[in-house]
Amino acid sequence: MVVVSAGATLIPACIQQDKVLFPLKNMVVRGPQQELLAVLTETIIPRTSDFPGANDLKAHEYLLTMMDDCAKPEEQQSFINGLNLFEEACKKKWNKSFVKATVQQRNEWLKELEANKENKDDLSGFYRTVKRYTIQSFTSSKEYLVDVQKFTLVPGSNFKGCVPVGKVDVKKST
Predict the structure, then answer these.
(1) What is the pTM of this model?
(2) Is the Cβ–Cβ distance between 153 and 74 less than 8 Å?
(3) What is the pLDDT of residues 58-98, one digit of tens each?
(4) Domain residue limits, the chain
């Protein structure tokens, strides 16, 4: 009985390592891969003392949603291949995963990928896709729009509803 109950508690712990953290409809990205994406997006846009980073804004979930919902199946497969190549390259380079690498190592690796902008392989395409969606997620976040862009909702605080609108001369405006 003791052996069975010990096995029943250990098996879920072993399976949970490969558990999907953010479910997708069309792609399969396992828990460790999703963790890598979270660390990668945070490396691209890190948290500062006065502003949240990409991980705080869940940029990796935005990235996965966009790839799952908007990308063609070939692009999704290329993304998954690039994700696997990215992790393999990190393991060859440092004998450890990107997640366990130091911040300096991560930044150096991204600088190397930035230098190879002309490459059309899956690894470079993967990095460009992650970077694009990370920036898109960050720059469309409430925190960025309100605190950096000083965005106010229309009509905003300067709206004056009592001011009459004059006639528009169509000939002058064209």
Answers:
(1) 0.75
(2) no
(3) 999 999 999 999 999 999 999 999 999 999 999 999 899 99
(4) 23-153
